[in-house]
């Protein structure tokens, strides 16, 4: 097992715990680099953050360093969730409540989840590519969870499932949504569906916190000062 840092997050992993592609991205610093640079524009001190698709917990740990935040993180893949719990513990992220499971817009149910060697390819989409195994995972209703825990920010990387979730969930009380779009799975029509659905809920595309496919949608909070660091 090796100990090293990425985006200021301490990792204790061995190369056989992830795929070669993931391992290389971790070692060269490219793993979730765009998200790590941009998420601080979406999350502010004191926020109550719901993170969906935490992966191995790198971005979760980045968010947890923001002052006075509370983080509720979910990862569907059981083996990935075990790695995330180890990384969160190594980084002293005591303000994170971590769960292995799913939040969906419908009634609680059981869903098929397709596990793939590259953890960022595991998803509920059978057509996304060859998979190693399929498992059943129970879900909770996302709107009930948001209300119960007074969530005001969402961070999402859920491999295409964001299209249906952001369309169907009410998202009452949420002020900002930072999401990685997966247009290779649903095309520009899917991006349009997400944008229109969120616009109907009062959200706008916020270029000040967006970078490529990592997009911030926010409710209007008035003008901000010019930030020279925004590309």
Automatic annotation (TrEMBL):
InterPro entries: FkbM_mtfrase, SAM-dependent_MTase, SAM-dependent_MTases_sf. Transmembrane segments: none annotated. Residues 70-204 form the Methyltransferase FkbM domain. The keyword Protease does not apply. It comes from the Bacteria. GO terms for biological process: methylation. The keyword Transferase applies. Keywords: Methyltransferase, Transferase. GO terms for molecular function: methyltransferase activity. This is FkbM family methyltransferase. It comes from Agrobacterium cavarae. The lineage of its organism: Bacteria, Pseudomonadati, Pseudomonadota, Alphaproteobacteria, Hyphomicrobiales.
